[in-house]
Design a protein that fits this description.
Blueprint lengths: L2 H5 L10 H10 L4 H11 L6 H5 L4 H7 L8 H11 L5 E5 L8 H8 L3 E6 L2 H13 L6 E5 L5 H10 L4 E6 L2 H7 L3 H11 L3 E7 L14 H10 E9 L2 E8 L1
Parallel strand pairs: 1-2, 1-4, 2-3, 4-5
Antiparallel strand pairs: 5-7, 6-7
Helix pairs in contact: 2-3, 6-7
The chain binds S-adenosylmethionine.
Length: 246
């Protein structure tokens, strides 16, 4: 049996794109157990039962996903759209359950198009079911895609309505851990097909227990050198950096 299928035997990893599983196998010298552990850390851990089954109110779903649970969507969107003029679309890279926050997004951004790109097939299905049930499917859509597939992502961005605002909420760590230094190239390429980017970093560890001092100075330096930083602030355990092209 091929190693990719072997890794994917586990329920929570079954619907990841093969390209991502392959990357994990490369990082772990083809060790199935280690690949699973790596993938669980960056993908599977977010799939709580409630998220998988799509049960509960949107507030409950947003609260059960590990990276969005501390987030107050009203506050974060209020802050983001304070300085950002009218946008036509929001393209959310590594969306997690953010699609369920569309009603908050609409409150501050107006009736924007929303595109969520996510590796976890279950999350994409849940997101699209939600959009359908709410009659939002003409303006909102989830895509099951690997962010490493930059050319596909850029195609989607090209088709999106301007002004395009890209979210990269707490996704850099996953990219870096599957391929070191990929995120720099990624941000540069995405910026070519977008007008404004909001990148966030968690300032607490995944378990939320210990405060971890990831200063991630490399990203600050990189963004300052290559982009125009419009705002950089902290909100509920999350550092939020808003930038556009120089
Ligand atoms: C820490 S979670 C953040 C989710 C959401 N952006 C948020 O902040 O609430 C990272 C998300 O990015 C997705 N992700 C990570 N690497 C990815 C990749 N290469 N392609 C697509 N999605 C990816 C994971 O499946 C996960 O849902």
């Amino acid at each position: 049996m091929n190693l990719i299928n072997e890794v994917k035997k586990k329920k929570e990893l079954r619907y990841l794109p093969d390209s991502i599983v392959k990357r994990a196998l490369n990082r772990t010298h083809n060790n199935v157990k280690d690949s699973r552990a790596l993938l669980r850390k960056y993908f599977g851990v977010f799939l709580t039962n409630r998220v998988l089954k799509g049960k509960g109110s949107i507030e409950e779903i947003l609260k059960t996903h590990i990276s969005s649970k501390k987030r107050n969507y009203e506050s974060i969107y209020r802050e983001i759209f304070k300085i950002t003029e009218i946008v036509g679309s929001v393209i959310d890279l590594g969306a997690g359950v953010n699609g369920f926050s569309y009603k908050y997004l609409r409150e501050f951004a107006g009736p924007v198009e929303y595109i969520g790109i996510e590796a976890s097939g279950q999350l994409v299905d849940q997101m699209n079911n939600y959009f359908k049930n709410e009659g939002l499917e003409t303006s909102c859509k989830g895509f099951h895609l690997d962010l490493f597939n930059i050319s596909e992502i850029k195609k989607i961005l090209r088709k999106s309505t301007k002004k395009r605002l890209v979210f990269m909420f707490q996704v850099i760590d996953a990219l870096e851990n599957l391929q070191k230094n990929f995120s720099k190239e990624f941000i540069i390429e995405i910026a070519k097909e977008s007008e404004i980017i909001v990148l966030t970093l968690s300032t607490t560890s995944l378990s939320g227990r210990k405060k971890f001092q990831v200063k991630r100075t490399w990203i600050t330096r990189f963004l300052e050198e290559n982009f125009n930083i419009k705002r950089d602030f902290n909100l509920n355990g999350e550092r939020i950096i808003i930038f556009d092209k120089k």
